[in-house]
Amino acid sequence: MRIVIAEDDPLLREGVALLLRAEGLEVVATAENSDDFLSAVDEHVPDIAVVDVRMPPTHTDEGIVAAVEARRRSPGLAVLVLSAYVEHAFATDLLASGSARLGYLLKERVGRVAEFMEALHRVADGGTAIDPDVVTQLLTRTRPDAGLDRLSPRERDVLALMAEGMGNSAIAERLVVTDGAVHKHIRSIFAKLDLPPDDRADRRVTAVLRYLEDARRQSR
Length: 220
Prior knowledge:
The chain is 55% helix and 14% strand. By secondary structure, the protein is α/β, with parallel strands linked by helices. The protein has 2 domains: 2-130, Response regulator (Rossmann fold, 3-Layer(aba) Sandwich); 137-219, Winged helix-like DNA-binding domain superfamily/Winged helix DNA-binding domain (Arc Repressor Mutant, subunit A). It is elongated. The mean pLDDT is 83.
C-alpha cells in the first residue's frame, strides 16, 4: 500500500509516517501544504492519502479541497481525512455522497493504533470509515423523529455502526452477536423507518441520513 500524508503539523506528520512504516506500509511522500500534496499525488500515484482538513494558508478547508482535486486527478485514490474536532458539515457530506474509499477520523484516533489501522485498511479496501465519536456527537444532536423513536437500543447501536461504514460481519463482531442477528436488526430498522426496497436508493445510507441530516440543520 503506497501512502501520501498531507499534514501541516510536523510532529504529527512525521509521527503518522513512522507509525505506518512500522506497520510495514510504504509512505512515498509527506506534504505540509495542499500544493505539495497534489504534486506528490501526481508524482507517486498513491493508493491512499491521509489528509488534514485544515491546512495553510487559511487553515479552513484546504485539505478537503485538495482531497477532492486529488480524487479528480486520480479517481481510484482512497482518502482518509483527519480532523482535530468534529466538522459536522463535512462528516454528513461524506456519508451523503455514498462514495467508497473515503474515511473521516478525529486526530486523537491515530494514537489508538489498532483502530486507526483498521480504518485505514477499510478505506483502502474500498469501504467507508467514520469516527465513532463523530457519529455519537451527530446522533445526540438530532431532533425527535417518530420513526427513530421506534428503534430499540440495540437497533440504534447497529445504526451507529452502519454510520461508521461497517458491514454486517464487522457489526456482528463488535456487538458480539451473529451475522443473522445483525441482518434481523437491519431489516427491523428499515421497516420502522418506512424504507422499502428501492433500486434507486441505498437503504443503509438513507437510514443513517435520517439522523445526520437533522444534526446538520441543528448545527447551522
